[in-house]
Specification:
This protein has 2 domains: about 220 residues, Alpha-Beta Complex (Spore Coat Polysaccharide Biosynthesis Protein SpsA, Chain A); about 120 residues, Hexapeptide repeat proteins (UDP N-Acetylglucosamine Acyltransferase, domain 1, 3 Solenoid), CATH 2.160.10.10. It is an alpha/beta fold and about 350 residues long. It is about 20% helix and about 30% strand. Strand 2 and strand 3 form a beta hairpin. The protein is elongated.
Length: about 350
């Protein structure tokens, strides 16, 4: 069985962060989302993985390489335009051949991994398996309608009037019949080859499509708020470890991870939180659900439920920063007048003087 990860797309909902970074490489709990997807597939026993890339191909290739660190073999498949998930399958047909495969969106985070799902599919005679979960706004997703026996009846992409609250999670398993389905369907009104249309073709032609309703959490990290939520959920599942330096004047609770080379000096850090390699926290407060990435400096400041990316500096900020995404090489420092609160989504290389 092979793996197919979709890592194209422009990430427009995450601008300005994704002007200079692939959205799949934004870290959640100090690990890029794409790496978590790779590990989930690898842990399911799949070592031959294709990654569909687009405009950010070079950055993805530089970050992932050939997969040696995970014990896998990676093949890159170029998709010139993001023309739909079924189109991604179409351009990957040479890599996939007639092998069954799992397709996983590279910006999704799911609780519990996919090992049991893959095993279930491998031991079955199903032609496809789709993972569903109940959502509050199904009109924003591909939606499945099931009959009383729990069988798939209909799939619709972003319906104005959803027939159910069961959204496709972005994890699919297919056998070779999906290639015929993709060849038969036409572009939707959006000009894309929709995977929902391809799966519907399988249903309409009598193939076995098995729905699995996921009961744990699932996050599509396409928006800033989604990334912060995913970060919070993953941080709660981390096993804390202190590998860096914490001085005697600091208070660090039992749910905090301090990575190698990090320093915490005269500060309070409350978890679940992670402090990345070579980062320095001085005279500061780091609150719960915060991820500080590598080589960050925070001095005389307070921050909570936020993500700060590498090589950024936050210094002498007079009010607490919260619910914020702060990109790479950002500098935040104090200006003469004091604000009461801050909420920011800052792109890479930003410099902000706060009034």
């Amino acid at each position: 069985m092979k793996g197919l990860i979709l890592s194209g797309g422009k990430g427009t909902r995450l601008y300005p962060l994704t002007y200079t970074r692939a959205k799949q490489l934004i870290p959640v709990a100090n690990k890029p989302v794409l790496f978590r997807v790779i590990e989930a597939i690898r842990d399911a026993g799949i070592t031959d993985i294709g990654i569909v890339v687009g405009d950010t191909a070079e950055e993805v290739k530089a970050a992932v390489g050939r997969g040696g660190r995970w014990g896998i073999q990676v093949t890159y498949i170029h998709q010139e335009q993001p023309l739909g998930l079924a189109h991604a399958v179409k351009v990957s047909q040479d890599f996939l051949g007639d092998d069954p495969f799992v397709m996983f969106l590279g910006d999704n985070v799911i609780q519990g991994g996919i090992t049991d799902l893959v095993r279930q599919f491998q031991e079955s005679d199903w032609n496809a398996q789709i993972v569903l979960t109940r959502v509050d706004h199904p009109e924003q997703y591909g939606v499945a309608e099931l009959n009383e026996e729990g069988q798939v009846v209909r799939l619709i992409e972003k319906p104005k009037d959803p027939p159910s609250d069961l959204a496709l999670v972005g994890i699919y398993m297919f056998d070779h019949h999906i290639h015929q389905a993709v060849a038969e369907i036409k572009p939707s009104w959006r000009g894309e080859l929709e995977i929902t249309d391809a799966i519907q073709w399988l249903v309409d032609h009598g193939y076995k499509v098995y729905p699995y309703v996921h009961r744990g959490w699932w996050i599509d990290t396409g928006r800033p708020g989604d990334i912060l939520e995913a970060n919070s959920l993953v941080l709660e599942e981390l096993e804390p470890v202190i590998e860096g330096y914490v001085d005697r004047d600091s208070e660090v609770d039992s749910r905090v991870t301090v990575e190698k080379g990090a320093e915490i000096i005269n500060s309070v850090v409350r978890g679940p939180t992670i402090i990345g390699r070579r980062s320095r926290i001085v005279n500061s407060y780091i609150g719960p659900f915060t991820s500080i990435y590598h080589d960050v400096t925070i001095e005389n400041s307070e921050i909570e439920r936020s993500i700060v990316l590498e090589h950024s500096v936050i210094r002498d900020i007079p009010a607490r920063i919260q619910d914020s995404l702060i990109g790479r090489n950002v500098t935040l420092n104090r200006s003469p007048m004091k604000p009461k609160a801050f909420k920011m989504n800052l792109g890479d290389y930003s410099q902000v003087g706060l009034l």
